[in-house]
Design a protein that fits this description.
single chain, about 220 residues, alpha+beta, 7-stranded mixed sheet, 3-stranded antiparallel sheet, 12 strands, about 25% strand, globular
């Protein structure tokens, strides 16, 4: 977490063991951070900007750092879901966090991935639009083999998992990758994440997602 003034940045970092509060010269800190993104290094995997008090440096940090293969893509997805479950109920005050995925081999078919702490026992969730397929018993068997749980009234398959299950993030990440590959996606860089949000205000950036993100970077809109 950080507080950004015109001359100084106050940074709160740490883990379960300790917390560290540090102060930095704002311009130098932002320039160094942006250079790290440009070089492919990620100082963090996601960033939530709620447009609070302080100086807006005017640039996003949604750098593109594609995962090296599907195993790493799955690992990045799981790590972000774990982190959201730990931090978002405090930073986003219980808001639903979500993003959409499109794959170039199946363009236009939307997968929605979300974490919603208010949905007890089904906080982690994924939906895939499957209206282009006839929903036969054989189709249902194929979808359940990918770990989709059920079909809703709109023609979308979904899976909901509780955050009390420590394996839920990894399970959902594996489902996402399995479905993308089953639909013809060959490489993780053929997948684009967009419409990324945590509630209705502020911006959520996910450079550590493991695939392409829209928008990648640039001035704040």
């Amino acid at each position: 977490m950080r507080w950004h003034g015109s001359e100084r940045i106050l940074l709160l970092s740490g883990d379960h063991g300790e917390a560290l509060l540090s102060a930095h010269e704002a311009k130098a800190f932002v320039q160094e951070e942006y250079s790290r993104f440009d070089s492919g290094s990620l100082p963090y995997t996601w960033q939530l900007d709620r447009h609070g008090p302080g100086h807006d440096h005017g640039w996003t940090f949604n750098g593109h750092a594609a995962a090296n293969g599907w195993a790493q893509t799955q690992e990045h997805l799981a790590q972000i879901l774990v982190s959201w479950a730990e931090h978002m109920p405090l930073q986003a005050l219980g808001d639903r966090v979500s993003f959409k995925l499109w794959a170039s081999r199946d363009w236009g078919r939307t997968m929605i991935v979300s974490y919603q702490p208010s949905q007890t026992d089904r906080e982690f969730c994924a939906f895939i639009d499957d209206r282009g397929h006839e929903q036969t018993p054989e189709r249902a068997a194929h979808m359940r083999a990918r770990a989709w749980q059920d079909l809703d009234d709109t023609g979308s398959w979904y899976t909901r998992l509780p955050e009390t299950d420590p394996t839920a993030p990894a399970t959902l990440a594996r489902l996402i990758v399995t479905d993308l590959r089953a639909r013809g996606t060959v490489f993780s860089h053929q997948v684009t994440a967009w419409d990324i949000s945590a509630g209705d205000h502020g911006k959520l950036w996910v450079p550590g997602l493991g695939g392409d993100v829209h928008p990648r970077r640039g001035e704040h809109f």
